[in-house]
Write a structure and sequence with these properties.
The complex is a heterodimer. By secondary structure, chain A is an alpha/beta fold. Chain A has twelve helices and twelve strands. Chain B has two domains: 108 residues, no CATH class; 177 residues, MetI-like fold. Chain B contains 14 helices and no strands. The chains are: A alpha/beta, B mainly alpha. At the A-B interface, helix 2 and helix 4 of A face helix 9 and helix 10 of B.
Chain lengths: 354, 315
């Protein structure tokens, strides 16, 4: 079942070839007493229908702000947003609040990081699912209830009728995240923004939830932006990966390309920080030293330079632009890119742009 | 689990009522003077006084007196006035409807003003609407009913002539006239509650609006009004409910003052007279009933908590 309200406003067939979502030079700045925090600073990406784009970066890299900014969920006071977000041919950044509300739910939905805090603690699970069904799909009480039960069943919750009457606090963490997914998928969105959907869960549950999301996505031909700090999570699940650092895209490529030939040392460092079963036990995890920079006053030049093992004077002086590697769909921002994941030797002599 | 929780609270509240009765009893008897003066006049002989005290049982030790009184109360009798020989229960039954009406009306006004105001202000915190409402209510908090009542009377009764300055008819006689007469007293009593409720609800709402579940409700495409009413309001009412429970108790005292300012005959007037005349049983009876009402309100508030947040009973 994939009911789609207001489908006329978003014609499907004519533009199948176009990307579903195009984010162009999106900026999101927060004006705070301390100064302007440039949480998202000129990000572009595209998501094609039914595909998954993984957005990867450390905490503080601006991933969560990016996903909320794409959706238009951020407050307007003291927040400056520039750039365009084109969804199915329409620019979300210029939409009225009312138009946006008709997009949220049936067109774009969000799965939040912490299902404990993202579910209303004093409302029954059933009511939290049925309210969007009734609003967007104009179902009556009975119909909405039956659909909600079917949704819970489809996200793998046993005895769904009974769970509809439960409060979030009566469910386990994994169950709650399944409920969260059911809420997001209720109105059959074409794009789901999943913001660290498994971070708060046990490892075994994490895999289950990600598999569930993957199969639901295939079933419904739904596109997804999977935001995570864990490159391992998106490695097998994303078609394309966008690596974010300090509010900017530092590398972007189809998943196999990225893993085979990372250009940016930061991407490489993220890969090295994934623990592997093949490593002997006791192997030290390769963590990235230091912390992401303060986004009020980011460093001049490459923002990763202060933490980069291969940084040169040039990196600290001027900011590398995003440019293409071997193929047009592989972009990176680095003056001294890696070759097959290794630094070009001897690096210190490499002062000329390749 | 809910039953256990409520049973526990009930036991606590009964204990509280008992304690209050002891304290009131002691306070009343620690006041200088005794009822013999008011009954016999100031010039009677000490001997006659002693005889009277003996007849009333007031010569016995305090513990014995308390035991006698408590025994009576447990048998359902609050005793009678030393002076008018009217049953205490009857005195209360005559005055209580007026106070009840006054409090109920004032609370309806308070909630009807405070809740919408807080909903509007919290969405625009620190903007003009919010600043104005917050400053105004701060001023209201500083205005007790005995200051406010004369001002209201001067403007709306004497100046504009919309309402009578004093008095009313019983609710059973003419509901419309009664309600009309009660508006000024109820408004005078409500201002403190409006300020209190508004400020508590506003700050809790502002905190709730920062929660993730509000963002996730918005992300469903719900109308902002629905987000406020169906998602933000309920989890923000804890302080409000707790304060309302305590406040309604203290409103009994406020109602007694407003009563005398507007010359409405309620329990308050009876209580003030009884204290002046050292009419012990009347004072104790009224105090006990007030304490009981207070305790019952607390119990109801506790029950509402479990409805508002199902986690309360389980925790």
């Amino acid at each position: 079942m994939s009911p789609r309200d207001g489908a006329d406003a978003f014609p499907d067939a004519t533009e199948l070839a176009d990307p579903l979502l195009t984010v162009d030079d999106l900026r999101t700045w927060f004006h705070t007493p301390r100064g302007t925090v440039r949480a998202v600073d000129g990000i572009s990406l595209t998501v094609r229908r039914g595909t998954t784009v993984g957005v990867v970066g450390e905490s503080g890299s601006g991933k969560t702000v990016l996903s909320r900014s794409i959706m238009g969920l951020l407050p307007t006071r003291d927040v400056e947003r520039a750039g365009t977000v084109t969804f199915a041919g329409r620019d979300l950044t210029t939409m009225s609040a009312k138009e946006l509300r008709s997009v949220w739910g049936p067109q774009i939905a969000m799965i939040f990081q912490d299902p404990m805090t993202a579910l209303n603690p004093v409302k029954r699970v059933g009511a939290q699912i049925t309210e969007s069904l009734r609003l967007h799909l104009h179902m009556d009480r009975k119909e909405a209830r039956a659909t909600a039960a079917a949704l819970l069943d489809s996200v793998g919750i046993p005895s769904p009728e009974k769970r509809l009457r439960a409060y979030p606090s009566q469910l386990s963490g994994g169950m709650r995240q399944r409920v969260m997914i059911a809420i997001a998928l209720a109105c059959g969105p074409r794009l789901v923004l999943a913001d660290e959907p498994t971070t708060g869960l046990d490892v075994t549950i994490q895999a289950q939830i990600l598999d569930l999301l993957g199969s639901l996505q295939d079933e419904r031909n739904m596109a997804m932006i999977l935001v995570t700090h864990d490159l391992g999570v998106v490695a097998t699940r994303a078609d394309e990966i966008v690596v974010m650092y300090a509010g900017k895209v530092v590398e972007r490529a189809p998943t196999p390309t990225l893993f085979a030939d990372p250009k940016m040392p930061y991407t490489r460092a993220l890969m090295d920080s994934i623990p592997r079963l093949s490593q002997p036990s006791g192997t030290r995890l390769a963590a990235i030293a230091g912390r992401p920079p303060d986004l009020v006053d980011p460093p001049q030049g490459c923002r990763f330079a202060p933490r980069c093992p291969y940084a040169q004077d040039r990196c600290r002086e001027s900011e590398p632009p995003l440019r293409t590697a071997g193929s047009a769909d592989h972009l990176f921002a680095c003056w001294f890119p890696l070759t097959n994941g290794r630094p070009s030797a001897p690096l210190t002599n490499n002062e000329v742009t390749p | 689990m809910l039953v256990t929780y409520l049973a526990k609270r009930l036991v606590q509240l009964i204990a509280v009522t008992f304690l209050i009765s002891v304290i009131v009893f002691l306070l009343v008897h620690l006041l200088p003077g005794d009822p013999s003066v008011t009954i016999l006049g100031a010039n009677d002989t000490p001997q006659n006084r002693l005889i009277l005290l003996h007849q009333l049982g007031l010569n016995k030790p305090l513990v014995a007196q308390y035991a006698t009184w408590l025994g009576q109360v447990l048998h359902g009798s609050l005793g009678q006035s030393y002076l008018t020989h009217q049953q205490v229960s009857q005195i209360i039954a005559q005055g209580a409807p007026v106070d009840l009406e006054l409090i109920v009306l004032s609370q309806i006004i308070a909630f009807a003003v405070a809740i919408p105001l807080a909903l509007v202000a919290s969405r625009r915190s620190n903007r003009p609407v919010d600043r104005m409402a917050t400053t105004t209510t701060f001023g209201l908090l500083a205005l007790p009913p005995f200051v406010l009542a004369p001002i209201l009377v001067a403007i709306f009764a004497v100046g504009l002539g919309w309402f009578p300055a004093t008095g009313t008819v019983p609710i059973s006689q003419n509901l419309a006239t009664n309600l009309h007469d009660m508006i000024l007293p109820a408004v005078a009593l409500s201002f403190g509650s409006i300020a209190l409720y508004y400020r508590l609800l506003r700050s809790d709402l502002i905190a709730t609006l920062q929660e993730d579940f509000i963002t996730s409700a918005r992300a469903k495409g719900l109308h902002p009004r629905r987000v406020m009413l169906r998602h933000a309001l309920r989890p923000s009412t804890f302080s409000l409910l707790a304060a309302a429970g305590v406040n309604i108790g203290s409103l009994l005292a406020g109602a007694f003052i407003v009563e005398s300012l507007f010359a409405i005959n309620g329990v308050g007037l009876a209580l003030i007279n009884a204290v002046e005349q050292r009419d012990y049983l009347v004072v104790q009876g009224i105090a006990l009933v007030v304490a009981l009402v207070y305790v019952i309100i607390q119990f109801i508030v506790d029950f509402i908590f479990t409805v508002v947040d199902p986690r309360v009973a389980r925790g």
